[in-house]
Amino acid sequence: MSSTKIKTVFVLATVLCATSFVVANPVELTAARQQGGAVIFYVAYQGQLRDILFNPIVFNQVLVNQGSAYDNDTGVFTAPVAGIYQFVFAAQLCRGDHNNVWYFMVNGNEGMACHAQVSGPDTTLNTCYSMEELKTGDQVWVKQRVGSCAWASTISKTITFSGVLLAREGVSTLGGKYGSGSSCPLATTGRRKDTMSSSVGRSASLSHVAITLLLCLLLHYISF
Q1: DSSP conformational letter for 96
Q2: How confident is the model at residue 207 (pLDDT cuts 50, 70, 90)?
Q3: Cα 149 from chain centroid?
Q4: pTM for this one?
């Protein structure tokens, strides 16, 4: 076999191996590109928050802290990346007449107020939502105003604070894009998954054809 033919066989074999790797790992490669590091946390407070100022409330039971952005020592969430975040605060109100007010604090400033009142022997679980566009390093926590009261046992988890990164760099972490004229990210999640799956399937089929052609060409060169 001539040196030219040997070089040609080597090149074809290299291309064949590279193509085979892509075909064997299309989902893994796609998943690696999509894994930008999720940011989500869910923490609870055990005990009562009765009548005094808590700024911040230090939620002492960490249930989820993917991305390690919530600090259990300070009660403060620090945004690891710029993007749009959603936060949720929930509290079981104490019985009796209390003027319950909590704030989502953003970099020390009072953001959305969470206000609820009950009277007499009644109690209820009050839930508040806030959405913020944050820069890297921005901090968010929950503040309780004087006169507020909430309670939780060691197992009830009725005082909680949670947050999730919804979108960053113009791309929703839930699927789809956000921006002017865009639709809700949740509405596009299923369609995007279907589109991605079909695209992977088409790429795999085309790659199989390419492998077959390369293999035939390789065998042709070897036989002469």
Answers
A1: S
A2: low
A3: 31
A4: 0.63
